[in-house]
């Protein structure tokens, strides 16, 4: 066994990111299905390290303490990129989709639990193959993995979660467009002409330059928000509510960026700045690269069948849910069809998958301002917070 120190681990992670960028540039299907660069590069690296183990009995281990810090940092930046006023822009559709998304988290976990029971797997594996890895994505799967290992004895929880999250990302990117096309054709839908609304941090329209003061300010606010989030989590733990650090730090970021400017108006707050976006992108990229390159894929032996069954079942359930529930409750119009495509990507993959789905649909059929407000807001923080609470609730019930 060879153990790499933190410096060497960072070097390998950066090389993995470069590998992912190269693969995305060369392979069209990675671009078409919106596979993140650290995911493609990390999976190739993990396969390579797996071959070293299989052929030469050489196990590479990484120093991953920095990875946990990067995860907390990323979710804190997501909170700091959120504004209360954007919630008002979403209006009634936002509330409706929020209720549907929370309900689907239960349905998604019920599906996972059912397949786990049929396949003879522990119920906790069903939760991992439910909202932990699919609605939660790679970040949530990796963040919850230590809990499944220490409390429930699922030693390969991270590998199961990453496998489901990765294939979910691909499936989510594949079904969104066809679902929207089917709904638009069947109901003869045409786009509205609402004024476009800006959501999130669009880098290409951000005029703020990255400079010393801006980067220093962003780091200061992020560090302070993390401190508040960790203190909040400590208080909740004493009340019996155990949540991952990233959830309370996400919530702390939301509070800090929305309340802080009123209390300290002269502070340079990182509102939609390139500095904040850069820290967010680097944190997520390095976090995913470290997580995926350190996968011990040989621990997945014997689990291929149950994982495939879960993914196929989840694909069928989300398709039916989107077509017969989401589309109808969101208004059965063109905007509802676009949001259906986005939500399919969100429920199986991640927010970027949802945005990619909606972009592909609107480029072909026409704009949908409402969809680009509602779906990203649901994916930005509502799902993560609700998901953490529901996962905790279900673990207490099945444990």
- For the CA atoms, what is the radius of gyration? 21 Å
What are the secondary-structure elements, in order, as H or E?
A: EHHHEHHHHHHHHHHHH
Q: Report, as a whole number of angstroms, the end-to-end distance.
A: 34 Å
Helix content: over 70%
Number of helices: 15
Question: How would you characterize the largest beta sheet?
Answer: 2 strands, parallel
Number of strands: 2
Uncertain runs are 195-205
Total individual domains: 2
Helix/strand structural class: mainly alpha
The strand line-up of the biggest sheet is 1-2
Arithmetic mean pLDDT: 85
Determine the strand fraction and express it as a percent band: under 5%
Q: Tell me, what's the shape?
A: globular
Keywords:
mainly alpha; 399 residues; 77% helix; 2 domains; two-stranded parallel ribbon; single chain
Give a quick summary of the entry.
Helix content is 77%, strand content 1%. The protein is mostly helical and 399 residues long.
Q: What would you say this structure looks like, in words?
A:
48% of the residues are buried. It is built from 15 helices and 2 strands. The protein is an all-alpha fold and 399 residues long. It has 2 domains: 2-200 and 285-398; 206-284, no CATH class. Strands 1-2 form a two-stranded parallel sheet.
Q: Strands, helices and their partners?
A:
Elements lengths: L1 E2 L2 H21 L1 H5 L4 H20 L3 E2 L3 H16 L3 H35 L4 H10 L4 H16 L4 H31 L24 H27 L6 H19 L10 H20 L10 H26 L4 H15 L2 H15 L3 H30 L1
Parallel strand pairs: 1-2
